[in-house]
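Input (structure):
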């Protein structure tokens, strides 16, 4: 299995993003994750905070990308990087927290069903 790329569209709420990344890092080997944060905030607070961290790439938005435009920018970035065919690309909101079961279930499903789309159940 290749790298895990997580595209995270953000507009302000830096603390939410820190919590989300901490939850991922707690349950997934940090060496296998690359975060693509699309910061569409006017002050680019995520860019300022995360830009020096090796496994985090922060892209600056235009201020009016919204969620779909931010995902598009993140996907375009990945397509330009020529990532490995067996990589996993995840879209995630920064106000979520993952648990220890999510990534193992994703990997198991995607090994059986390559080139598939996986959507976990979400609980409030």
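Output (sequence):
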């Amino acid at each position: 299995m290749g790298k895990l790329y997580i595209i995270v569209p953000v507009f302000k709420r830096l603390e939410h993003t820190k919590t989300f990344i901490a939850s991922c890092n707690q349950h997934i080997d940090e060496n296998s994750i690359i975060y693509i944060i699309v910061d569409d905030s006017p002050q680019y607070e995520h860019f300022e905070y995360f830009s020096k961290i090796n496994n985090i790439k922060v892209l600056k938005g235009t201020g009016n990308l919204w969620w779909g435009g931010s995902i598009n920018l993140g996907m375009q970035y990945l397509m330009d990087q020529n990532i490995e065919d067996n990589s996993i690309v995840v879209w995630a909101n920064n106000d979520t927290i993952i648990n220890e079961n999510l990534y193992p279930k994703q990997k198991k499903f995607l090994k059986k069903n390559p080139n598939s789309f996986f959507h976990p159940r979400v609980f409030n």
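Notes: The first strand starts at residue 4 and ends at 10. Residues 66-81 form the longest helix (16 residues).
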